[in-house]
Specification:
Elements (H helix, E strand, L loop, with lengths): L5 H5 L29 E2 L6 E2 L2 H12 L3 E6 L2 E3 L2 E4 L6 E6 L4 E7 L2 E6 L15 E9 L5 E7 L7 H17 L6 H8 L4 H21 L3 H15 L5 H14 L14 H9 L24 H13 L5 H12 L7 H17 L3 H9 L8 H9 L1
Parallel strand pairs: 5-10
Antiparallel strand pairs: 1-2, 3-4, 3-6, 7-8, 7-9, 9-10
Helix pairs in contact: 3-5, 5-6, 6-7, 9-10, 11-12
Length: 381
């Protein structure tokens, strides 16, 4: 677990800010480079995109014709967000709905209007600080509620909650009894809305591992997805650890850039988010055991080590043995894991100048939403 000690060095200037800011920031060490485009997470499945146009197309193609989401300061908000420097742009995006009524309210104000392709920022008082509620009722659809925090955040007892969550999660995953969130809430005491969301997210996370360990993979999948949605806005070390575990499991690789830059997980960030040929500086020494603060499964932990070995030219035999072992793992047949292993095989054959074997591996990925472009480029190149 020592891997995550580097989180504090990477993020020491923002440790008191426990939600992701809608204002993008650059690391001081990256100041000489052009800032990367902010990631756009799908509000439904959490897949990552680099432009609003790509996101809109993805939602229409994958999730059907009708959806409502919020765009604040150019960033997508699933249901909760923090505008660190205030709300400068607020838009409701309607896909497949002709219109909607929109209510924007906060302390001392409440305004309502019909939707359109315009900025609702005018409905918020200038220099407003505090909680904002945006209620959207699309014509012929279900109402959606969004919560924004402008400039400041409410009290959040991160250390107290984390000290309770870690032992609870481990005990719950190992227990044969059906977990009860009521026990968690009773011991945590009175909580604000964000504290309750944080606790709920980790309960769903631990519950999913409990179900998975008891042979209920289908039920576990639903709770993993719910945990990801609940925890995605948080930027605490514990939340980032859980996000990386879930991102690897669900093939939502964009969240891997939240791991510490010197961690083992950063190898998977490079591998899955950058094209073939990208380099990762091998870290020494590589820690044994799990690099995560939170619960994780054996397959994911082994996968991280195999990906790291991919970048070490002196470890080709170790990489090949590790990949072969993963392919015989019981979880290897799961679709998301099968695709990750196919990409590992394809890139290894490509690196070793084995085009026929690489083509066979890439054939399995040519229609993949993330890996398909690379596969098509190789197959048609």
């Amino acid at each position: 677990m020592a891997d995550w000690k580097d989180f504090y060095e990477d993020n020491k200037e923002t440790l008191g800010q426990y939600l992701d800011s809608l204002t993008g920031k650059r690391r001081s060490s990256d100041a000489q480079h052009a800032p990367a485009a902010p990631l756009q997470f799908c509000p439904i499945c959490h897949a990552v995109h680099i432009s609003s146009a790509d996101l809109d197309f993805h939602i229409k193609q994958v999730h059907g014709p009708q959806h409502v989401y919020l765009r604040v300061n150019g960033r997508i908000v699933r249901d909760v967000g923090w505008a660190e420097r205030g709300v400068s742009d607020l838009r409701v995006v309607l896909l497949g709905f002709p219109s909607a009524s929109v209510q924007v309210s906060g302390i001392g104000f409440c305004q309502q209007t019909s939707s359109g392709d315009h900025d609702f920022r005018r409905m918020i008082p200038a220099r407003y600080e505090g909680e904002i509620h945006v209620d959207v009722s699309p014509q012929g659809g279900k109402p959606r509620q969004f919560t924004l925090f402008s400039r400041s955040l409410p009290e959040f007892r991160r250390e107290d909650l984390d000290s309770l969550i870690l032992p609870w999660a481990g005990e719950m995953a190992a227990s044969s009894d059906i977990p009860d969130i009521g026990c968690w809430r009773q011991l945590a005491g009175n909580m604000g809305a964000l504290e309750n969301r944080y606790l709920n997210g980790f309960f769903e996370y631990a519950l999913a591992f409990h179900l998975s360990s008891h042979g209920q993979a289908d039920r576990a999948k639903e709770h993993f997805e719910e945990a990801f949605g609940l925890l995605l806005p948080f930027r605490t070390p514990l939340a980032h650890s859980a996000q990386c575990v879930l991102g690897l499991a669900m093939n939502c690789f964009g969240v891997l850039n939240r791991a510490a830059r010197r961690s083992l997980i950063s190898a998977s960030d490079v591998f899955f988010n950058q094209p073939f040929g990208s380099a990762w500086d091998t870290q020494t020494p590589v820690i044994n055991g799990s690099p995560f603060l939170t619960l994780s499964d054996e397959f994911t932990i082994r996968l991280l080590r195999v990906v790291a070995d991919f970048y070490d030219p002196e470890e080709d035999s170790l990489f090949a043995a590790g990949l072969a072992a993963l392919e015989f793992h019981p979880l290897a047949a799961e679709r998301n894991n099968h695709d990750k292993l196919a990409l590992l095989r394809a890139r290894q054959h490509r690196r070793l100048s084995q085009p026929r074997e690489a083509r066979a591996a890439y054939e399995m990925l040519r229609y993949h939403p993330f890996f398909g472009a690379e596969a098509e480029g190789f197959l048609n190149g």
